[in-house]
Amino acid sequence: MTESERPSDRRIHDRYPVTWAVDCQTEETFLYAFITNISELGIFVKTTEPLALGTELALSFAPPGKEPFKLRGAVAWINPARIGDSNPGMGIRFLDLTLEERERIVDVVKTVAYVRAPQKN
Description:
Blueprint: E1 16-25, E2 30-38, E3 42-46, E4 56-61, E5 69-79, E6 89-95, H1 99-116
Antiparallel strand pairs: 1-2, 1-4, 2-3, 3-6, 4-5, 5-6
């Protein structure tokens, strides 16, 4: 894996595990896959056939209980399929979010974070 293919070890925003269906579409490709984590800046899409770095795509996904998202994104990094690796896929960075889209993403991430937080007894 080259340096540009590797995700940064220094995350600005926390990522939270989810399992949501996502449609990823380019002019040449349509991929139905699953989001396995989300942050305020992007998502990780699990797939054995990640798209090339920099590929721009249309994303469509619907978090449970929320309005569906139709966003633009770009492949920021890839984790190629390898023997013994159970998490192949691609990191997608959101592009050109409107203020409303950004607020909706932040709301969804906060909801996921709250649900995932350990409950104190």
